[in-house]
Amino acid sequence: MKKRIEVTVNSEKYELAIETHKLLLEFLRDDLGLTGTKESCGMGECGACTVLLDGKAVNSCLILAVDADRKVITTIEGLAKEQNLDPLQESFIKMGAIQCGFCTSGMIMSAKALLNENPNPDISEIKKALAGNICRCTGYKKIIKAVRMVADSQKTR
Amino acid sequence: MPLKGKVGESIPRVDAMDKVLGKALFAADFRMEGLFHMKVLRSDRPHARIRKINTERAARMEGVVRIFTYKDIPGKNLIGIINKDQTVLAEERVRFVGDAVALVVAHSEREAERALGKIQVEYEDLHPIFDPEKSLDSTTLIHEKGNLLYQRDIVRGDVEKGFSDADLSIETIYSTSMLEHTYLEPDAGVAWIDEKGRITVYASTQNPHYDHREIVTSLGIDPSKVRVIQATTGGGFGSKLDITVQCFLALAVYYLRRPIRLVYTREEAYLATAKRHPLIMKYKTGVRQDGKIVAMYVDILGDTGAYGSYGIAVAGRAAVHATGPYHVPHVKVRARMAYTNRPFCGAMRGFGVPQVAFAHESQMDLVAEELGMDPFDIRLLNAFEPGSETATGQILKDSVGIKDCLQRVQEHSKKIKEEKASPGRLSGRGIAAMWYGIGNTGMKNPASARAELNHQGMFALFTGAAEIGQGSDTVLCQIAASEMGIGVEDIRLIRGDTAITPDAGATSASRQTYISGNAVRKAAARLRVMVLENASEFLHVPVKELSIEDALIKSIRDGKTLTTLEEVAARCKHEGKKLIGEGFFDPPTSTLNPETGQGIPYATYAFACHMVDVRVDPTTGEVDVLRVVAAHDVGKAINPTNVVGQIASGVAMGIGQALMEEFAPGQTGSMREYMIPTVKDVPVIIPIIVESPEHTGPFGAKGVGEPALIPTAPAIINAMNRALGVKIVNLPAKLERVMKMVLKGSGAVG
């Protein structure tokens, strides 16, 4: 069964009929080819599939695509504007917050949602916001630092 | 401006940009026209004979293209990195819940999944064995050759005499659990026929050249007809050293000549891939009154599950490392691996050393306590130094930084006040040390590399070394850049493609910086000489007066630029000359004597010491790791930020090993049932890089990937023992176990 939806993904509007059982994650990866969003646990435990839905971080493996009707979605591919990286992308590179890279997209999207809401989070607020994102490579230290770095630079601006 | 990326500089990783943009192409991200999808039927029996596989109904299901069983395998149906005992697809027997029995290829994943349920397998159940001790006594054979996979003995001195000289001896039995690597990217691959007609497999892997060999053998075709490309790989920690999707995909493409994709779900990755070996370790340590260890007896029994995988390597490495980084004159070690009908166990970050380190470091603390010695002092008294002899009779020459590591951590321990216990809050401080041999144990394990300057003057580095997140792409580029006198940004890296890159062996055993690093350095050095010789010819300046700096050819005398790499390349093109440097390195080791284990298992060792402060809430059993001071002798930090990243990584994984992680076959099915550390669990980490140069290493470097993990759990456990006044002998020390300890008071618990 299909249902028509209207959805904005990375500033592009899509109007299409979509299977009602399709997950938002599948829609992004398989239909739109936005494979920057990853699937790891498939049950909302790891956060690798995190995207922004109307600015809030959500696990796209737990949401049906039809439930994104009339909503705005941002994925990792939508963060950089033309040649300019998002400050989080820059700080993740600079601080060495990336190792295998499989958690990176979800991690950055969770951090983005946090900074949208709270531009100057302290360490415990960062930890709380990222607690649903599992990373097995970095030990999280440099990820926390990368998020702090963006908060600090925005403060001085 | 000087070019960036010299050895010792913390430049950003070369693979970071693609990853941060979401562009890095992991295998599951690969899209192709007309892609078929594959699913694997797996055994639901731990031990059974297969009477019949009926695929007829499944084959008629909508969307199904073809079903494969063992009968379709044209070559040898037997794989395994060290000993070949595993079938690609089960023939007459399944040996664990998860053994692959049949493959379905369909137009969609859903159709393939649906058809799986329609394959009928008639099993005749056999007696299953779930315990390694029972396995060795059983008349039921899991494999024809018997249930003992391997035994490694090490005998040094006279252990009986050693114990008779001892003033005190302490005996303890330790055990550890089966663990799941839980790399973030579930195993995946895509395969197709490339433009040269080769069966090409693009897969998540730690060893593309090994995958290539197994595919070639299982298909029985010429090696030139198969190509394996390492996809961007989302972590491995040892698990992706085994064959997962590779042979399945190659088999299907062999017949169907169409692109096919296989992506494991997390549940399938948990069910079907390797685990960490649980070990039972009996330790007896004999010491003199002054704290000198005089004798050690160790008996290790491991459960390798249904297949060998890296079981032999784990037993061998556990045995060699059983003493810890200490000189012990009289040693007797026996390490055995037994088959059972549990999931097979393979390589996982440290190959048995994280397990034995838990035992030898617990023993050190018990001895120190009994003798009333400081934990640092007893370790410093016994620690290796240049000239020490190991239990295998190897004399350690240079780069023995264990005392430096201990002393550097000890300095911190004096500066940082220990947490005070308060009502309802117990606290403790613990330390642990380790040593870790770089590369494979007592066997050849070479790497090759190639450096080229093409006719446009572009530098290209070719390596088969798999980047799995640990940072080898960046480190190898830095080594090449330093040797060649160019910047990392000038390097085009071509990595992990068996059609064009030389074999670098496995990304395992913390070996790529040391072994591939040397191969890369040699390749770049040869290319540099070649470039300078050619420049010398037309410049009419002797080679010894030329150098390459900042990608320019300069005079050593006055530093003036004489010509460019482009100019040399253009002239070589004109003369039909190629500028290619090849490098090869195999660490100097020797085979261990089969009876006594004497020999040189590794060319060099990394050393480390961690100190941990913990706080325990005795009412809930909750353990907070507050702080970890981690000193690592890496020889030379090629990229210090990467080294620190590995240390933090190891600390996090060690917290999991100590407190949370336990894979229970049949119960642990998904990430919901397997707790691993989150951002909330990581403590303050103070990394200390110790650089005791290894003269055989590239720029003095050794390795750090596995060492980073090893001392963490033992130090946490030692801290908990102090906080609670107990003796923890089983890992993990989960919440409920800690609670039991608190209720019971002291004594051996777990």
Explain what you see.
The complex is a heterodimer of chains A (157) and B (750). By secondary structure, chain A is of the alpha+beta class. Chain A contains five helices and five strands. Chain A has two domains: 77 residues, Ubiquitin-like (UB roll) (Roll); 70 residues, DNA polymerase, domain 1 (Orthogonal Bundle), CATH 1.10.150. In chain A, 35% of the residues lie in helices and 17% in strands. Chain A has a five-stranded mixed sheet with strand order 2-1-5-3-4, with helices on one face. Chain A is globular, with a radius of gyration of 15 Å. Chain B contains 18 helices and 30 strands. In chain B, the strands form eight sheets. Chain B has a seven-stranded mixed sheet with strand order 3-5-1-12-9-10-11, sandwiched between helices. A five-stranded mixed sheet of chain B has the order 7-16-15-14-8, sandwiched between helices. In chain B, a hairpin with a 5-residue loop joins strand 9 and strand 10. The N and C termini of chain B lie far apart (60 Å). Classes of the chains: A alpha+beta (157), B alpha+beta (750). Chains A and B meet through helix 2, helix 3, helix 4 and helix 5 of A and helix 1 and helix 16 of B.
Distance between the termini of chain B: 60 Å
Distance between the termini of chain A: 51 Å
* Backbone structural class of chain A: alpha+beta
Beta-strand content bin of chain A: 15-25%
How many domains of chain A?
Answer: 2
Task: Say what oligomer this is.
Answer: heterodimer
Strand order of the largest sheet of chain A: 2-1-5-3-4
User: Architecture of the largest domain in chain B, according to CATH?
Assistant: 2-Layer Sandwich
- What share of the residues of chain B does DSSP label as strand, in percent? 25-35%
Secondary-structure arrangement, i.e. CATH architecture of the largest domain in chain A: Roll
Mean pLDDT of chain B: 97
Low-confidence segments of chain A: none
What is the CATH superfamily of the largest domain in chain B?
A: Aldehyde oxidase/xanthine dehydrogenase, molybdopterin binding domain
Radius of gyration computed on alpha carbons of chain B? 27 Å
The amount of helix of chain B comes to 25-40%
Number of helices of chain A: 5
Shape of chain B: globular
Task: Specify the CATH class of the largest domain in chain A.
Answer: Alpha Beta
> What is the general shape of chain A?
globular
As for the number of domains of chain B, it is 3
What is the number of beta strands of chain A? 5
